[in-house]
Design brief:
The complex is a heterodimer.
Chain A: E1 6-15, E2 18-28, E3 33-38, H1 44-51, E4 59-64, E5 67-68, H2 74-80, E6 82-85, H3 97-104, H4 108-111, H5 114-124, H6 126-130, H7 141-153, E7 159-163, H8 171-188, E8 191-196, H9 199-205, E9 208-213, E10 216-222, H10 228-236
Parallel strand pairs in A: 3-8, 3-9, 6-7, 7-8
Antiparallel strand pairs in A: 1-2, 1-4, 4-5, 9-10
Helix pairs in contact in A: 3-7
Chain B: H1 2-8, E1 12-13, H2 17-36, H3 41-66, H4 75-91, H5 96-118, H6 124-142, E2 153-154, H7 163-186, H8 188-198, H9 200-205, H10 210-236, E3 238-239, H11 241-244, H12 248-260, H13 266-282, H14 289-303, H15 307-316, E4 318-319, H16 325-330
Parallel strand pairs in B: 1-4
Antiparallel strand pairs in B: 2-3
The chains are: A alpha/beta, B mainly alpha.
């Protein structure tokens, strides 16, 4: 087995007869930031949901830390150290911010160090410490996104997937969140997969990139070596 | 706004030692009333109804208010329990205890089998599917010769227990139901259930095994609903398809939980007391009772969406039987 942290091999997934993910191969090294770029309906979210065990693949394999995790249910995959921050910062609305975060260490592997991890999350997001007793439903979009990131961090993941983290947020808030993501990557050596529509931003923050179109990866490579014109063409499929 | 934020930090939790002592004292007092037979037969009859409704409503609240699985088919387990007790006592001449055990066993078995089918659906679809399943069982029993088809079965328990012993059994079921719900919610499982109520997808993404949690809650709800219902129907002395599998059972439970306070443990207790007395008053207006109950439910949803107990907790900033274990224990 190669030493990639996460390896996706010939993965197929879909809804009924519709094929959303078509023979995708992908490798994520340890400590790397990968940008997964594509227009709406390209299959980015379905691909990542399939990797995280939230959606069943029709063919292919997913390897994490050298182990085959294709058939595992979502809770077992979280326990192995692969966490997903779902689209739109989906929080548990009626639970307090702190309970939301503690929900992140729900799996057995993370529970032992929950207290220290919680301190770490509050250190990373001082705003959240200020409002830990407030119900998450009362927060703003950006704050909710932070709760969702903090919650994923609570599982002490080796690899985190961020699904369109910038969706519907103000540019200043997005910048702030991206700085936090870079910090997480730097300090914890967490591998990060960013699903993103903003090509320029994605290219700037990532080490490598993959462009998806109609369920296939059409272009991938090192982010620093590609010119933006080629990237744009691949994004729109022209 | 500023005021609310200040108060949010200082919610008092009344489930510490003094609260525990008060609860135990109340329970002991109720047991004493039952044992010494101070209360009149009439009072006992009300108490039995209240206890049994509390047990069933706590279970419906566990399903809907805490887990987000709004079932409209709890009458399925009520009917099954009624028929099980009838078969066990009237046909096989077994004791009431064995009859109840049989009812609980059958209900658990049926809920396990149905889970495979029902858990594929969510939200509104789940609600409708549970109702449909209950209706299917009603039609099944309506055409089943062994259980007397449409005319149903009489439940003859010999020796027939005295009213105060029925009262004691009801109280025991009620206390067990509350304790089980409370303990369940205070564990890690309870936290997972609350997360599922707010967002099933996100809960699954943080590692909650949704299927297993749903199964656990459904089996517990089926077992306690069956236990409470078997006593209820023994008291009535007869079970037939239209009564046992009637949707009006679940409608009463919804009324109790909504008026009392959905998502609180105290809610079903307050709701049951109100419901039983309201039923008595409404008996004077035959035909109108369901309309009046419906109007009250709608008004409660519009003006007191958190129910009586939920609103009181919000206004007075306290929490009886708090299910919020994590925040408070880790705040120190």
């Amino acid at each position: 087995m190669s030493d990639a942290l996460l390896r996706v091999e010939n993965l197929h997934a879909g809804y009924g007869d519709f094929v959303a993910v078509d023979a995708v191969n992908l490798a994520v090294e340890k400590g790397e930031i990968v940008a997964l770029i594509g227009i709406n309906g390209a299959g980015k979210t379905t691909l990542m949901h399939t990797v995280a065990g939230l959606h069943k693949p029709t063919a292919g394999n997913v390897f994490f830390k050298g182990e085959d995790i294709t058939a595992l249910p979502a809770d077992k995959i979280v326990q192995k150290g692969l966490s997903l921050v779902p689209q739109g910062g989906r929080c548990f609305q009626r639970m307090s911010v702190q309970d939301n975060l503690l929900m992140g260490s729900y799996v057995r592997s993370a529970r032992k160090n929950a207290k220290q991890t919680l301190e770490r999350v509050y250190e990373l997001f001082p705003d959240l410490a200020q409002m830990k007793q407030r119900p998450a439903g009362n927060l703003s979009g950006g704050q909710r996104q932070m709760v969702a990131i903090g919650r994923a961090l609570m599982a002490a993941p080796a690899c985190m997937i961020f699904d369109e983290i910038s969706l519907g947020l103000a540019p200043a808030v997005i910048n702030d969140i991206y700085r936090k993501i870079a910090r997480i990557n730097e300090e914890e050596h967490t591998s990060i997969i960013l699903i993103e529509q903003d090509i320029r931003r994605a290219q700037k923050v990532s080490d490598t990139f993959c462009i998806m179109l109609k369920g296939k990866i059409v272009l991938s490579g090192k982010s620093s070596e590609i010119d933006s014109e080629t990237l744009k063409k691949a994004y729109f499929g022209i | 706004m500023e005021k609310r934020r200040l108060n949010n930090g200082k919610i008092k939790v009344l489930d510490s030692l003094p609260m525990l002592i008060v609860c135990i004292a109340v329970i002991l007092a109720l047991y004493l009333v039952c044992f010494t037979q101070i209360a009149s037969t009439n009072a006992m009859r009300y108490m039995i109804q209240i206890f049994l409704y509390i047990a069933m409503a706590e279970m419906w609240n566990l399903l809907s208010g805490f887990t987000g699985m709004t079932s409209l088919g709890q009458q399925l387990y009520i009917g099954l329990a009624g028929y099980s007790v009838a078969v066990a006592t009237t046909m096989l001449h077994l004791s009431l205890g064995l009859g109840m055990a049989m009812g609980i066993g059958v209900s658990i078995l049926v809920s396990l089998v149905l889970s495979l089918l029902l858990f594929r659906m969510e939200g509104m679809y789940y609600s409708i599917a549970t109702w449909v399943v209950a209706e299917i069982f009603e039609k099944l029993f309506l055409n089943w010769k062994f259980v007397g088809q449409g005319s149903g079965m009489t439940i003859r328990v010999e020796p027939y227990p005295r009213i105060h012993s029925i009262c004691i059994i009801s109280l025991t079921i009620c206390v067990c139901a509350i304790v089980v719900v409370y303990l369940l919610l205070r564990t890690k499982v309870g936290l997972g259930l609350n997360a599922m109520r707010d967002d099933v997808g996100a809960a699954s993404a943080v590692g909650v095994n949704v299927f297993r949690h749903k199964l656990l809650v459904c089996v517990i709800a089926a077992a306690f609903t069956a236990a409470a219902a078997s006593i209820f129907l023994v008291n009535k002395g007869i079970v037939y398809p239209e009564s046992g599998f009637s949707i009006s059972w679940t409608v009463s439970l919804i009324f109790i939980v909504v008026v009392g306070g959905s998502g609180t443990i105290g809610g079903p207790i307050v709701g049951s007391v109100i419901y039983v007395f309201l039923q008595e008053i409404l008996a004077r207006f035959p035909g109108w009772s369901n309309i009046i109950l419906g109007v009250i439910t709608i008004l409660t949803i519009l003006f007191l969406p958190k129910g009586i107990v939920g609103t009181l907790q919000q206004k007075l900033h306290f929490d009886i039987f708090s299910a919020k274990r994590f925040s408070y224990s880790k705040r120190k």
